């Protein structure tokens, strides 16, 4: 990812057609991880061939797991069992991916070899104490940089002690890390989450025949528990299309004129559909068709047509359910009539970039009045300025793509700088965004 790719966006476009976006990133990571530590062969279809999930795939190959593919979304993982991983001969490079680093830390804490996890400039600034703290409680010894940031040096791992852990923040990555470490603990490990977060790890573990108990404690809190030491039975996985990637197209269709877009086979796991609820509250015209379940995950075709959006106060309980979609939801708010207020979203400050500050700067560059707050943003929907300053992605794929969609309603061409990062989650973005009717050129700057 060394070259600087710029996106040049010509305003306007009608947004129509029928598309399929790539496989879900969260599910793709987990399919390799669980496939690798299962007994038997796992066949994956719809795997996301993005840099993030490929980093996970390569890391397991480096630990002696035979993996074929990806070939057109097909991957075959020859599982080595819970105890079959081998010490890698070099540090494992997780690239830009927080999910890869945090979930792998859980699995690696259970191994009896030392290893090191490294990442790119963005990942090297992200907080890892949130996973090293519970892993240390379980008995693992992990070194980080002074500020609790990567690299992670796992000095001593399993067998681990089980814990009962109350998550300090609503994070599926931390929940999953502790549960995966729990596979290597002697006894019952439990995690209590303060609000619902994506539950792909729990669903996939059950799909691999592992007993996982989820108990609702009240409207918000859930306790998830499992007992270490059982085995995982290989299972075939059909990865649904990523609702987080579909979100760019949903917002594009919602804010364009005369739009009518169908996005096929999108994962609509209820822990991921906050974006649908928020857009509907804003007045978007969204319908679901062909609802089905594939490999334990619900999917549907999503149809979106143009609508007149209005500003809203985003209900805080929807925040963790739409956590990755805020960059593009801010774009929807910019095109809406009236004010949109987001609160309770301080986690956005520690994503691939500080998404509150970076998106406020991007919208300001487009002439939109957007005011960052400690835990959210206030956006006055309205006209974009006749001229815009170039937008910087700050190593963040979702900023690159959200800013591109914002160009749809701009008054003049929009330049988005540093966009090679789109390959981490959505390598076919440019092709598809042009296919549906936007005018975007990717050029080396
Ligand atoms: C993810 C969980 C979320 C999300 C990330 C993927 C996962 O992170 O933002 O893109 O696959 O578990 P947090 O757990 O930090 O909220």
UniProtKB/TrEMBL annotation:
This is 3-phosphoshikimate 1-carboxyvinyltransferase. It catalyses: 3-phosphoshikimate + phosphoenolpyruvate = 5-O-(1-carboxyvinyl)-3-phosphoshikimate + phosphate. PANTHER family: AROM/DEHYDROQUINATE SYNTHASE, PENTAFUNCTIONAL AROM POLYPEPTIDE. Catalyzes the transfer of the enolpyruvyl moiety of phosphoenolpyruvate (PEP) to the 5-hydroxyl of shikimate-3-phosphate (S3P) to produce enolpyruvyl shikimate-3-phosphate and inorganic phosphate. One of its GO terms (biological process) is aromatic amino acid family biosynthetic process. Monomer. 3-phosphoshikimate binds at residues 25-26, 30, 171, 173, 324, 351. InterPro entries: Enolpyruvate_Tfrase_dom, Enolpyruvate_Tfrase_sf, EPSP_synthase, EPSP_synthase_CS, RNA3'P_cycl/enolpyr_Trfase_a/b. GO terms for molecular function: 3-phosphoshikimate 1-carboxyvinyltransferase activity. It comes from the Bacteria. The keyword Lipid metabolism does not apply. Pfam families: EPSP_synthase (PF00275). Belongs to the EPSP synthase family. Its EC number is 2.5.1.19. The active site is at residue 324. Residues 9-431 form the Enolpyruvate transferase domain. HAMAP family: EPSP_synth.
């Amino acid at each position: 990812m060394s070259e600087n790719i710029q996106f040049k966006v010509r305003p306007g476009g009608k947004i129509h057609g029928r598309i399929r976006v790539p496989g879900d990133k969260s599910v793709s990571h987990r399919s390799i991880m669980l496939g690798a530590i299962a007994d038997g062969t796992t066949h994956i279809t719809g795997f996301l061939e993005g840099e993030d999930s490929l980093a996970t795939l390569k890391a397991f190959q480096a630990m002696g797991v035979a993996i074929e593919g990806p070939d057109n979304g097909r991957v075959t993982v020859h599982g080595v069992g819970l105890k079959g991983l081998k010490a890698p001969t070099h540090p494992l490079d997780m690239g830009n991916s927080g999910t890869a680093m945090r979930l792998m830390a859980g699995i690696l804490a259970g191994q009896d070899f030392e290893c090191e996890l490294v990442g790119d400039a963005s990942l090297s600034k992200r907080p890892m104490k949130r996973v090293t703290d519970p892993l240390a409680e379980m008995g693992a010894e992990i070194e980080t940089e002074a500020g609790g940031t990567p690299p992670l040096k796992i000095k001593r791992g399993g067998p681990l002690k089980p814990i009962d852990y109350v998550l300090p923040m609503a994070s599926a990555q931390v929940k999953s890390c502790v549960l995966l470490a729990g596979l290597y603990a002697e006894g019952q490990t439990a995690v209590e989450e303060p609000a619902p977060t994506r539950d792909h790890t729990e669903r996939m573990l059950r799909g691999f025949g592992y007993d996982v108990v989820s108990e609702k404690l009240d409207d918000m809190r859930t306790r998830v528990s499992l007992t270490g030491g059982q085995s995982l039975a290989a299972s075939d996985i059909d990865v649904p299309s990523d609702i987080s990637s579909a979100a760019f197209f949903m917002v594009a269709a919602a804010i364009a004129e005369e739009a009518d877009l169908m996005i096929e086979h999108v994962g609509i796991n209820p822990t991921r559909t906050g974006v649908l609820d928020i857009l509907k509250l804003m007045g978007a015209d969204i319908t679901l068709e062909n609802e089905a379940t594939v490999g334990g995950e619900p999917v549907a075709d999503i149809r979106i047509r143009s609508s007149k959006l209005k500003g809203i106060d985003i209900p805080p309980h929807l925040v963790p359910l739409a956590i990755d979609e805020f960059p593009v939801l801010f774009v929807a708010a910019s095109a809406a009539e009236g004010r949109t207020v987001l609160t309770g979203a301080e986690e956005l400050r520690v994503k691939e970039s500080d998404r509150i500050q970076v998106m406020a700067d991007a919208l300001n560059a487009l002439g939109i009045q957007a005011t960052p707050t400690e835990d959210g943003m206030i956006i006055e929907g309205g006209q974009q300025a006749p001229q815009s300053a170039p937008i910087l992605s700050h190593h963040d794929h979702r900023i690159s793509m959200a800013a591109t969609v914002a160009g749809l309603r701009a008054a003049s061409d929009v330049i988005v700088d540093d966009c090679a990062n789109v390959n981490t989650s959505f390598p076919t973005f440019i092709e598809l965004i042009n296919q549906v009717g936007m005018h975007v050129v990717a050029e080396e700057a």
